[in-house]
Design goal:
The protein is mostly helical. It contains 13 helices and 3 strands, in the order H-H-H-H-H-H-H-E-E-E-H-H-H-H-H-H. The protein has a 3-stranded mixed beta sheet, with helices on both faces. Strand 2 and strand 3 form a beta hairpin. The mean pLDDT is about 95.
């Protein structure tokens, strides 16, 4: 039987979930539309960025029956708590130089150590499902000729047909709203896990790189709309990669998605992630990084590179053991087992 402290924490978690639920859905819809239009993005709900919300989640970690809920809440609020800090916001608003990134990294660490007793990158990696560092490297791969050049244009039905195909394989009928915009990169927004979401895609899809980006976001949609799990980022990215690999094999998915360049481009992306992860893990090292300026990802999306590396390793394994998508294969079910195992690890 649960003790009174556990019951008290559970009641607070229930109250936070109730308050955040509708606010987050409205926020996601507004955020997705602003993102697609290229207009200023709305801030996250206030409750999601409060240190007190993160503190409740940390306390809930101590109780096995509340652990998965606590981790899911931390996965949402910890990055917001870090990025909303005044010192972090000021450093992030500065000119993106390497000295500026070192200052930004230090500011993030200060908040993370105060709130979570660990450096920011370690907090983000733990929540993302990353448990080990990859082999460090600064070897930048050469571009793939033709990857970003026009080869053919997908017709207007291609995305709908691809999504219908993926949903049918999963024996599901989740609601996916599609917004078209050439102002921003493709991106998926989960409005309600297991139910509805919004995908922002290009108006014209005319290069292999764009086809990959769209399929990758459809993979995120499949993961998040066929499961109610609040995925660790590495697991979510593994599912997206699994779907995007459909473009590496002819005739696996309806439409002209295939590209003979896709496998080489995937290898290049993985190598770039390793380089960026190496830089990010050693940012305070005085050694000069191999880029003239900090890439956008290191400035605005800390911790993501290690998640991409881990995701490709997971995807290699499931593609080998389960094969490509087929009728009745719910990839989210297999990945959920991995996610639960990660989220039950000791964390904070």
């Amino acid at each position: 039987m649960a003790d009174s402290q556990e019951l008290d924490i559970e009641l607070v978690l229930d109250r936070i979930a109730g308050q955040l639920g509708d606010e987050l859905r409205m926020h996601v819809r507004a955020f997705a539309r602003a993102y697609a239009a290229g207009t200023p993005l709305p801030p996250a709900p206030d409750l999601a960025g409060r240190a007190s919300t993160a503190a409740v989640a940390r306390r809930a970690l101590a109780f096995p029956t509340l652990r998965l809920r606590a981790v899911a809440l931390l996965r949402l609020v910890a990055p917001i708590v870090i990025e909303r800090d005044a010192g972090v916001a000021a450093a992030r608003a500065a000119e993106p130089t390497w000295a500026g990134l070192r200052a930004l990294s230090a500011a993030r660490d200060a908040v993370a150590r105060a709130r979570f007793k660990r450096p920011a990158i370690e907090v983000l990696h733990l929540l993302a499902g990353v448990r080990a560092a990859s082999e460090p490297t600064l070897d930048i791969p050469a571009p793939i000729a033709g990857w970003t050049e026009t080869d053919h244009v997908l017709d207007d039905r291609a995305i709908d047909d691809a999504w219908s195909y993926l949903a049918e394989l999963s024996s599901a009928s989740p609601a996916l709203e599609i917004l078209r915009s050439d102002l921003v990169r493709p991106r998926f927004f989960v409005e309600q896990h297991g139910s509805s979401g919004i995908a922002v895609v290009p108006k014209t899809i005319d290069t292999p790189a764009k086809r990959f980006a769209v399929l990758h976001e459809l993979g995120h949609a499949l993961m998040n709309l066929t499961s109610s799990y609040a995925w660790p980022r590495a697991i979510d990215e593994a599912g997206a990669s699994y779907v995007a690999r459909l473009m590496e094999v002819p005739e696996l998915i309806p439409g002209r998605w295939f590209s003979p360049l896709a496998a080489a481009a995937r290898a290049r992306r993985l190598q770039l992630a390793r380089v960026l992860d190496t830089v990010e893990r050693t940012i305070q090292d005085p050694q000069d990084p191999p880029f003239p300026r900090p890439p956008w990802a290191l400035w605005h999306d800390p911790g993501a590179q290690a998640a991409y590396i881990e995701a490709e390793s997971i995807c290699d394994e499931i593609w080998t053991t389960l094969g490509p998508p087929r009728a009745g294969l719910r990839i989210a079910d297999d990945l959920a087992v991995r996610a639960v195992g990660l989220d039950n690890d000791e964390m904070f």
